[in-house]
Every structure is written in structure tokens, then in C-alpha cells.
């Protein structure tokens, strides 16, 4: 019997386990998935916990509930990958052999990478919201915080869900307004980017929104250290930004096992060199990478993992059958962006096409508006939680085009 091994049982890994189990003969192929955590976290929900929209229990479920019974689920930490031997070494020293390896190990925030970020003020006046521990601690802080300088800072540009820091700023504006204390809070968005986002049309629209909401943007700020004693951010060119409450998006890196196995790309962040179209490893033909673990120039977002999975299942089956890898991922991503007060906007783009205005998913009727703030987009964002638990990670078909469509988009 041949073996498929999947590393990581998060969004991408769970999707691939379900898709592969449905596609392959269980008498010929054994599928094993490895993850160190038995709980599955709905990470898009982390954004809403600090503002009381979701409670912690809304975003946690057992991983085993979303994996096929015929898939072997191993709860263990991966220590090292030895692709030259088709082996994975677990933390307890045991070995797993494979014929095909799918790496879905994701990315994690590493506050230790920045001097002073995880210092004496960590989880007192400095918080992240990209972890379950961070977002729940921040929720408790906001309940009693009396105001001052709220700073949202991106330590790096390569992060999971690139729009989430902006969403946090918009939701914070609405939250404090609804509490009747917006005049007591100065919100500052500090980013290494030259604007609110990386794409021109979206950046122009989002910059305008930030200005309307009286949120100050400090661009081109490359964080060097956090001075806990003085409560200031310090950039490499010695600019300083004071804070009373810092919401940080730390440096993101690939899984330790990727770094320990020397499989990461040359920038040292631990993301695996991946063919951006086929999602096959550039080094090992029987290794495929999906989601945040790749170094492809697409957003590290759940929608990207979804569209990648549709491509990857085709290419893995082609590889198994000795056929060319003809399915191509176009970098498709779409992201709802919460803007506060029960409204949101939506962006849809790929490797070659920036976010454009228009209607989504159906030309002329929408009902969602691209680069437009409306209620329908917000309802779409909230509805995604049900879609995530019941369709996405279980590998069911979702009626949205895998490849980005120009239908409904305005190009002028």
C-alpha cells in the first residue's frame, strides 16, 4: 500500500485530507495527517473576539470531527522532514514514511523576532490578535481600557491575512464610538507598506476610509524595537511612535520543522520554494505545498488555500498517475474587509490583476460589491463561518470560481 502524508491539519491540510480521501482507493492508498494540536481554530473569528462579536468557544472545535474516519490522524509535533529519504521524524523520534508528501504547516507569529515586543508589557499593554491566547487576552483588556493612544502595527509585510490589521482598525473605531468614548482614543495604523494596502486601487479606497474615520496612517515604518519603558515603537531610521495600547502583528514565519529541515527559502522566514502555478516543490517532485507554508506571491489567506486545494487535488492525482501537472493556480484571492457598523467591503484579485470595483460573484446583480462598503459584504463575512465549518474544511464544493473571473469587474 502506498502512503500519502499530510503535515498540518488546519484549513489547508483538512481540505486536502478530505479531497484525497474521496478521490483515492483506500485499498491502495493510506492517508495520514499529522498535527500537534487536537483543536481546530476558526482563525478568521479571532478578529471579532476583542469586540465581543464572537466568544472564544465560537472558534474552537475538535479537528477529528472534520477528518474522514478512514484517515489516520496523528497528534504529534513534526521535528524534521527528510525528503531525500521520504521520511518525517516526529518529536518522539518515530518515523513516518511517505510516497507523496503534502505540506500544510502554515505560518505563525513570532514576536520574539522583534526586540522588546514580547517584553514586560506583553499581554498587559501589548497584544497580538492572530493567536487564540492573544485575542482572548485583548478582549479582556478592551473591556476596561479607558482610552489613549491605540497603535496597530505591522512588524513585517508577509503576514497571514494581510487585511486583518486594517479590519481591526475599522472595528476599533466603531467599537469605541459605540461605547461613547471615541473622542478618548487616538487610533494610529503603523505599517511598513507605503499605504493601507499593497494594490493601488484598493489602497486608494482604504486610505480614504481611514481618513474618514480619523485613523492616522504612518507608512514606511520598519519596526526595529519596542521600548517597553518609554512605551514607544522605534524604527530602523529612528522614527518613534508612542502608544498606550499596542496591537501588534508580529513577524510571521513558517513552521519550525520547515526551518529545521532547511526547506525554507533564502529569506530565512521558513516558507517553502513552490512552483506558483502547480504548487509542487521546486526541489522534490513528490512534495506539494499548500496554504501559508508556500512562498508563492499570493496572500496568506483562507480563500487562497481553498482555491489552491482545487488545483492541488488535480495535480496530485496527475502525479500519481504519471501525467503532466496541467492544473494551474492563478493566485486567486478574495477577502472581505470589515469596515465597522455592520458593513464591509470586498476585494478579488490574482497574480496579474489587482482588486477592481464591480459586482461579485455575479455580474450585474452581485449581491456583493467590490471595493464598495455595504451591508451585503458584512453579511457575507459573517456567513462564511458556517461555510467554513460545514463546507470548506470538509472539502465540499463551494460555487465560486477557482480561477479569478473578470465577470462583473469594472476595468476603466
Describe the fold and architecture:
The protein is an alpha/beta fold and 412 residues long. The chain has three domains: 171 residues, 3-Layer(bba) Sandwich (FAD/NAD(P)-binding domain), CATH 3.50.50; 141 residues, FAD/NAD(P)-binding domain; 60 residues, no CATH class. Helix content is 23%, strand content 27%. It has seven helices and 24 strands. It has a five-stranded parallel beta sheet, with helices on one face. It has a five-stranded parallel beta sheet with strand order 11-18-12-13-14. Strands 6-7-8 form a three-stranded antiparallel beta sheet. Strand 1, helix 1 and strand 2 form a beta-alpha-beta unit. Helix 1 runs parallel beside helix 6. The radius of gyration is 21 Å and the shape is globular.
List the helices and strands and how they pair.
Elements: E1 2-7, H1 11-23, E2 29-35, E3 39-41, E4 60-62, E5 72-75, E6 78-82, E7 87-90, E8 95-97, E9 100-103, E10 107-109, E11 126-128, H2 132-144, E12 148-154, H3 164-178, E13 185-190, H4 200-212, E14 215-218, E15 223-227, E16 232-235, E17 240-242, E18 245-249, E19 252-254, H5 256-260, E20 287-289, H6 302-320, E21 333-340, E22 343-349, E23 358-362, E24 366-370, H7 375-392
Parallel strand pairs: 1-2, 1-9, 2-5, 9-20, 11-18, 12-13, 12-18, 13-14
Antiparallel strand pairs: 3-4, 6-7, 7-8, 10-19, 15-16, 16-17, 21-22, 23-24
Query: Which ranges are low-confidence, i.e. pLDDT below 50, for 5 or more consecutive residues?
Result: none
Biggest β-sheet strands, sense, barrel:
5 strands, parallel
Strand order of the largest sheet: 5-2-1-9-20
Q: What fold name stands as the CATH topology of the largest domain? A: FAD/NAD(P)-binding domain
User: How many structural domains does the protein architecture include?
Assistant: 3
CATH class of the largest domain: Alpha Beta
| Reported CATH architecture of the largest domain | 3-Layer(bba) Sandwich
Q: Which term fits the overall shape? A: globular
State the distance separating the first and last CA atoms: 56 Å
The pLDDT mean sits at 97
Based on DSSP secondary structure assignment, what is the total number of beta strands?
24
Count of helical regions: 7
Radius of gyration: 21 Å
Instruction: Give the helix/strand class.
Output: alpha/beta
% residues in beta strands: 25-35%
| Helix content estimate | 10-25%
**CATH homologous superfamily title of the largest domain:** FAD/NAD(P)-binding domain
Amino acid at each position: 500500500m502506498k502512503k500519502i502524508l499530510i503535515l498540518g491539519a488546519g484549513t489547508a491540510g483538512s481540505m486536502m485530507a478530505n479531497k484525497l480521501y474521496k478521490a483515492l482507493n483506500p485499498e491502495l492508498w493510506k492517508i495520514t495527517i499529522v498535527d500537534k494540536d487536537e483543536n481546530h481554530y476558526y482563525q478568521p473569528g479571532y478578529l471579532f473576539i476583542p469586540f465581543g462579536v464572537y466568544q472564544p468557544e465560537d472558534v474552537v472545535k475538535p479537528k477529528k470531527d472534520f477528518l474522514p474516519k478512514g484517515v489516520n490522524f496523528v497528534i504529534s509535533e513534526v521535528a524534521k522532514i527528510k525528503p531525500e529519504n521520504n521520511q518525517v521524524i516526529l518529536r518522539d523520534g518515530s518515523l513516518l514514511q511517505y510516497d507523496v508528501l503534502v505540506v500544510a504547516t502554515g505560518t505563525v507569529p513570532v514576536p520574539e523576532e522583534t526586540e522588546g515586543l514580547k517584553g514586560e508589557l506583553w499581554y498587559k499593554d501589548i497584544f497580538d490578535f492572530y493567536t487564540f491566547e492573544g485575542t482572548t487576552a485583548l478582549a479582556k483588556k478592551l473591556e476596561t481600557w479607558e482610552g489613549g493612544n491605540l497603535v496597530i502595527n505591522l512588524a513585517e509585510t508577509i503576514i497571514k491575512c494581510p487585511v486583518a490589521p486594517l479590519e481591526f482598525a475599522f472595528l476599533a473605531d466603531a467599537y469605541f464610538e459605540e461605547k461613547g468614548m471615541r473622542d478618548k482614543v487616538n487610533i494610529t495604523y503603523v505599517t511598513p507598506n507605503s499605504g493601507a494596502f499593497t494594490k493601488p486601487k484598493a489602497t486608494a479606497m482604504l486610505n480614504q476610509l481611514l481618513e474618514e474615520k480619523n485613523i492616522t496612517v504612518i507608512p514606511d515604518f520598519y519596526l526595529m524595537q519596542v521600548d517597553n519603558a518609554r512605551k514607544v515603537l522605534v524604527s530602523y531610521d529612528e522614527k518613534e511612535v508612542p502608544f498606550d495600547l499596542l496591537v501588534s502583528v508580529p513577524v510571521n514565519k513558517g513552521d519550525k520543522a520547515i526551518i529545521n529541515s532547511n526547506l525554507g527559502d533564502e529569506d530565512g522566514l521558513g516558507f517553502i520554494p513552490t512552483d506558483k502555478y502547480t504548487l509542487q516543490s521546486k526541489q522534490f517532485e513528490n512534495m506539494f505545498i499548500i496554504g501559508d507554508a508556500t512562498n508563492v506571491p499570493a496572500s496568506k489567506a483562507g480563500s487562497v488555500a481553498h482555491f489552491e486545494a482545487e488545483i492541488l487535488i488535480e495535480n496530485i492525482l496527475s502525479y500519481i498517475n504519471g501525467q503532466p501537472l496541467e492544473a494551474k493556480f492563478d493566485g486567486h484571492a478574495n477577502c472581505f474587509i470589515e469596515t465597522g457598523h455592520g458593513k464591509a467591503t470586498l476585494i478579488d484579485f490574482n497574480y496579474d490583476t489587482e482588486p477592481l470595483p464591480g459586482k461579485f460573484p455575479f455580474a450585474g446583480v452581485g449581491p456583493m460589491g467590490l471595493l464598495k462598503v455595504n451591508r451585503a459584504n458584512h453579511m457575507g463575512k459573517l456567513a462564511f463561518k458556517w461555510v467554513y465549518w460545514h463546507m470548506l474544511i470538509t472539502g465540499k464544493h463551494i460555487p465560486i470560481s477557482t480561477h479569478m473571473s473578470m465577470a462583473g469587474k469594472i476595468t476603466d
